[in-house]
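Need the bound structure for adenosine-5'-diphosphate, inputs here:
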Amino acid sequence: MVASFRKRLLLVHLAVILAIVACTALAGYWGLSRAVHGQLDAALLALAETEMAMLPAAPRQPVQVHEVAPGLAPPSLTRLDRLVQIIDGEGRVLARSRNLEAAQLPASAALLARLAAGETVFETLPKFGEEPLRMISIPVPSSGSRLAVQVAGSLDDTNHVLAAATVLFGAMALALLAAVGLAGEMLTRRVLGAIDDVVDQAHSIGEASLHQRLPHPGTQDEIGRLVDTLNAMLDRLEHGYDAQRRFTADASHELRSPLSRLRTEIEITLRRPRESPEYVDALASCLDEVQRLTTLVEELLMLTRLDVGQERNAVETIELNPLVRAAAQRLEKPAAQRGIRIVFDDSVAVHARVAAGPVDLVLANLLDNAVKFSPPGTSISVHVARDGAHAIVGVADAGPGIGVEDLPHLFERFYRGAQARAGEAPGFGLGLALSQAIVHAYGGSIEARNRPQGGALFLMRLPALD
Ligand SMILES: Nc1ncnc2c1ncn2[C@@H]1O[C@H](COP(=O)(O)OP(=O)(O)O)[C@@H](O)[C@H]1O
Ligand SMILES: [Mg+2]
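Answer from helper R.:
Posting the output first, comments after.
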C-alpha cells in the first residue's frame, strides 16, 4: 500500500518535472533560435542596404556589385560568405558577387511579385549549393527598372549553434530530471520510511504492550505531530485500560470476601444439627451478607451502565428542596440512634434540570457518608442554594474531615480513606465514584473539601433552570 503510494507520488512528481523541463527547454530553444536567426537577418539586411545605397543614381549607368578588390583593402567581415545579386523587375541578373561563380540566387515569380509590391522578403533556401541559405530580397525604391538587391548568407553556423544548443538543452534537461527525480525519491523514501516505522510499531502494540510508544521521527513536522497525537492517545488508552483492569480486580476481590464469609457461616452452621434460634441467627447473618452483596452488585452494575452511557434517565425540572429533605428524613433514624442531628438551610426554592432517581442516589450516598463519619452528638448541615447557572447542594459534617493523602483519590472506584479502612464503617469505596459518575452524566460536578472549623464538606453542582 505504502510502496504503491510512493511509486505514484514519484511518478506524479517526475511527470510534473518533465513537463516543466520540456516547456523550459522548448522556450529556451525558441528564444535562442529567434535570436540567432534575427542576428543573421539583421546582418543580411545591413549588407543589402549598403549595397542599395551604392547603386548608381543615374538610370543608365551600369549596375554592379561592390566588392573589395582583392589585396587592396583590409578584409571585410561583413561580406564574408555573403552572396550578393542585383536583379531587375523580370528577374534578370544584372550583377552578382564573384563568389556566386556561375550560380544565381533564385528569383521566383512569387518573389518578383512581392518585390514589385515594395515588400522586403526573407527566405530560407534549404537546398542551394552545399549549404542551406538565408536570403533577403529588397526592392530598390525609385529605380526605373524596378531593381532589387538580393543578399544570401549560409545558415550553416546558425544551424550548428542551434544543434549544439539542442544537445546542451537535452543534456541539461536529462540531468535536471535525474537530479530532481533522485531528490524526490530520497525525500519520499525518508518521509514514507518514517510512516513505515510507525505502521510497523503500531502493528506490534497490543493489549499486553500498551506501554509501548510509536517511534518519533525527531522533527516537529506533520509526521512528528501525528506521532505525538497517536502517542498521547496511547497514553489515554493505557490509562483507561489500567483503570478498567484495576476495577475488575477490585470488584472480584470485593465479591469474593462476602461470598467466602457466607460460605464459612453456612458450613459452620451445617456441621451439626442445631436448635431453631441458632438457624434463625445464622440465616439473619447470611441475609446481612447477601444484602451487602446485592448493594455491591447494584453499584457495580450502575457504574458499568454509566460507563457505557446507558444509565441516563430523562431529564426533568425538579425542585431540589423536597428531594433533599426526603433523602435526609430516610437517614434521620440511624442518625438519631448515634445522637446526630441533621440541620437544614433551604430557605430558597431551587430547581434543577436532572433526573430525580439518580440524584436521589447521590444524596443518599453523601448523607450516608456524613452520618457514618460523624462522631456522636454532632450535627450535619445540609444547604440548598443557587449560584449563577448552578443549583448547589452542600452536605457538611463535624467529623474528622478528609486526610490530605486521601483527597486526590476520594472519587476513585473502591478507594476508601485510611480511617474508613481502619474503622468499623461499612462500605466498598464505590459511593463517591458512583455519585461523581452520575453528576457528570447530568452535566454537573461534585467536590470535596475540609471545613476550616473541622469536618468535611461535599458540594454538588447541578445545572439549574434558566
Ligand atoms: N463525610 C466524610 N468525612 C470523612 N471522610 C469521608 C466522608 N465521606 C467520604 N469520605 C472518605 O471517602 C472515602 C470514599 O467514600 P465512598 O466512596 O462513599 O466509600 P465508602 O463510604 O464505602 O467508604 C471514604 O472511605 C472516606 O475515606
Ligand atoms: Mg459511602
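Comments: Residues 1-57+76-204 form a domain with the Beta-Lactamase fold (CATH 3.30.450.20). DSSP finds nine helices and twelve strands in the chain.
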